[in-house]
Specification:
With about 160 residues, the protein is of the alpha+beta class. Among the domains are: about 35 residues; about 60 residues. It has four helices and five strands; from the N terminus they run βββββαααα. The strands form two sheets. Strands 2-1-3 form a three-stranded antiparallel sheet, with no helix packed on it. Strands 4-5 form a two-stranded antiparallel sheet. The two termini are about 35 Å apart. The relative contact order is 0.06.
């Protein structure tokens, strides 16, 4: 719940408290008298969300050494770096991330190489008949199982 400022009509004190958005009056924290909620401006903070709070300022954005040019905010910088294949340090999964990632990449390459070898062997076995080689190498039931496992893993 957000913080709101309330004004006590009895003693003129202003105090801040947590209240729901619908709350317009609560008892005064000091004297117990009637209060009314004050209107306040939302905070403008420099965050990754950066909803344009700094537009119009003379220093709009900053120079990113990583991106090599000016960017409007950290989110834009992260987007550029991800598009270039870089991984943000905060996205790393712990101290063994690199070794786990490299092992996973090696296993993927080995699996693809194994399928490729099987396809080449089937191509020789069926005297260059590509359709039959593909059918034998990648049977429909196995491909459907693999697609279902991928969808379950990615939540698609």
């Amino acid at each position: 719940m957000p913080l709101y400022d309330f004004y006590c009509e009895t003693d003129g004190e202003v105090f801040e408290t947590v209240a729901s958005r619908e709350t317009v009056s609560i008892p005064c924290a000091i004297c117990g008298g009637d209060t009314r909620r004050l209107i306040s401006a939302p905070a403008k903070t420099a965050t990754l969300w950066n909803s344009g709070w700094n537009s119009g300022l003379s220093n709009n954005g900053f120079y990113s050494h990583s991106a090599g040019h000016r960017v409007a905010n950290k989110r834009e910088e992260e987007t550029i770096m991800r598009s270039r294949g870089f991984v943000n340090e905060k996205d790393l999964g712990g101290e063994n991330f690199y070794n786990d990632y490299m092992t996973e990449q090696k296993n993927d390459r080995d699996g693809l190489e194994s399928m490729s070898k099987t396809y080449r062997d089937n191509l020789k076995k069926f005297d260059g008949d590509k359709v039959r080689a593909v059918t034998e190498t990648f049977p429909a039931h196995a491909m459907l199982e693999q697609a279902a496992a991928h969808d379950a893993a990615t939540g698609e």
